[in-house]
Amino acid sequence: MTMTMAPAIDMTDRKHAFYAEVRRLANAQFESPQYRRMLALLLNKARAGKYALQKGFWQLNRRDCWAFAQALSPMDVKALIWEHELDELSGNPERGVENHYDLQVRQAATVGLTREDFERETLADETLTCLYAWLHLSRSGPWLKSFAASAALEVSNSSEWVDGGGISYRWGKKQERELGIPFDKQVNAKEHAEVDVAHSGILTQVVERHCDTPEKLDLVLTGLNESWAIDRTWKGVLTDLMEAVPGPS
Fold first, then answer.
1. d(CA 221, CA 10)
2. Domain-located, residue 20
3. Which residues span the domain enclosing 230?
4. Residue 1, domain member (yes or no)
5. What is the Cα–Cα distance from 177 to 193, expressed in whole angstroms?
6. 165 located within any domain
């Protein structure tokens, strides 16, 4: 009995449609009630400090989520994630930039915080819930979905995908307007506004290498959508925590 190979599927049009949908969804994050409410909340340094302190827990959680995605992924994607995480975990000696958690701590000095403040901060129940949700999504598989769950937050923070810049850029500009902190002095926001353009390219690389069926594109889109759903909830949490701090109205 002679076996015949199934013809390869021409994925060109499907991938064009996929990328257009990713772009639409990434931009839609900023039109969601949670994002709009957070970006509309007037800041003082105490509110900005609460944002920075809770975001410190989120940054550590991102490293865990990417590690789970890497563990599930094939070898070539493990290497892509390794390269991606070098900046986050070790910084970039060529640019004279430390690891990104330390960048966050250093930037927080502009709103009066110290490393000891980060060490003393209590993980809010609502923050814990969101972080556990991302961990569950990241380690549950299939690997394309797990990978996409982490890549989602790079995409929606990249000016390559989002009109008007991602949240690092927009939050930095908001602090510049409302707190008088020059954007260039916000070392973490400035770094992420730049490197996440490159980091977001990891999604396209993986899609082009591995998504040769519509079902695989659907897995990626599911991971993106579920991660962005958690992210919207997280932005609502951050706004609630900041609103509880006395400030301008």
1. 19
2. no
3. 43-243
4. no
5. 17
6. yes
Cα separation, 29 vs 171, in Å, equals 14
Q: Are 249 and 42 in contact (CB under 8 A)?
A: yes
pTM of the predicted protein model: 0.92
User: Measured at the alpha carbon of residue 88, what is the angle toward residues 109 and 82, in degrees to the nearest 5?
Assistant: 175
Question: How many other CB atoms sit within 10 Å of the CB of residue 130?
Answer: 22
| Interatomic CA distance for residues 223 and 238, integer angstroms | 22
Instruction: State pLDDT tens for residues 102-116.
Output: 988 999 999 999 999
- Nearest Cα to Cα of residue 33 among 221, 249, 235, 179: 235
Domains in the chain: how many in total?
A: 1
Q: Residue 166 maps to which CATH number? A: 1.20.910.10
**Which residues does 148 contact at the CB level (< 8 Å), separation at least 6?**
203, 219, 220, 221, 222, 223, 224, 227
Kind and range of the H or E run holding 118: helix 115-120
15 falls within a domain: no
DSSP for 188-229, please give it. HHHHHHHHHHHHTHHHHHHHHHH--SHHHHHHHHHHHHHHHH
Of 205, 203, 193, give the one whose Cα is nearest residue 167: 193
What would the pLDDT profile of 194-220 be if each residue is shown by its tens digit? 654 555 689 999 999 999 999 999 999
